[in-house]
Amino acid sequence: MNKVKITVLKTTFDKELASEYGVEGLGTCPMLKVGQIFYADYAKPEGFCDEAWKAIYQYVFSLSHGCSKELFYCGDWIKTPGVAICSCNDGLRPVIFKLEATDIKSEINYTPIK
Predict the structure, then answer these.
(1) Which residues pair with 51 in a beta bridge?
(2) Minimal CA–CA distance to 8: which of 110, 107, 99, 97?
């Protein structure tokens, strides 16, 4: 298992939906900033949003377990093997991520319970 590099590409904000459904003063995501980089494998990186992790985890898992040489979805999505572009599930202010497979080996830093 290898680490996956997670880069925050973009933070967005849907003004129209936010004006109808959001609380006063709502803006872009307060947790993640463009350019931030995280590394992950089986576990959510420290400081990463719980909800965003739930939205991208399956891609991180796949890339960390060897899907790095293949294209996702039979090649009709992302043109580069080992890369996925994903977003969190916040409908008013989604954050866009680039996930990249790496050659950095993962280390399990816990003791499995038997």
Answers:
(1) none
(2) 97
